[in-house]
Amino acid sequence: TDQYSLYFAGSTTLFNALLMKCLEREVMALCRYTARRNTPPRFVALVPQEEEVDEQKVQIAPPGFHIIFLPYADDKRNVDFTEKVPASREQVDKMKEIIQKLRFKYRTDSFENPVLQQHFRNLEALALAMMEPEQAEDLTSENYWWV
């Protein structure tokens, strides 16, 4: 049971009922989402996902909702496509090569939890009476990958 189920009696039952009805009717829910206090709300779509299991009844994908952030009116724009420019065989082969280089075997122990690492650095700074802790580097951040 998660921490919020303790505050709202019946929330798990409500969640499951909403998920089942959305899947049954093949609809999504339009919602207003506020991530935390003092942040503006955003409109989101809750897209239902059915549980997926393989032949051995092992769960592949859990049941639940995907939150899709919807664009604002000024985020939309019309782009005029004057002509279709097909990629050459050489360009396609080059992109396949690039994509192949981007693939790697994912291992959870390859990436440190940045929040936990920052917590450890804060404890270290407190124990050593440092003025301020070192900042943990988040190797999972999209900002890191663009550098």
Describe the structure.
- There is one protein chain.
- The chain has four helices and five strands.
- The protein has helices at 11-25, 89-102, 114-127, 142-146, and strands at 29-33, 42-49, 52-53, 59-61, 64-69.
- The strands form two sheets. Strands 1-2-5 form a three-stranded antiparallel sheet. The protein has a two-stranded antiparallel ribbon with strand order 3-4.
- Strand 3 (52-53) and strand 4 (59-61) form a beta hairpin.
- The longest helix is centred in the N-terminal third of the chain and has 15 residues, at 11-25.
- The chain starts with 10 loop residues before the first helix and ends with a helix.
* Unreliable stretches: none
Form type: extended
Tell me the structural class: alpha+beta
How are the strands of the biggest sheet laid out side by side? 1-2-5
What would the average pLDDT be, to the nearest integer?
84
Strand count: 5
Element-by-element helix/strand order: HEEEEEHHH
Q: What is the helix content?
A: 25-40%
Strand content: 15-25%
Largest sheet: 3 strands, antiparallel
Distinct helical segment count? 4
What's the Cα radius of gyration?
23 Å
Distance between the termini: 39 Å
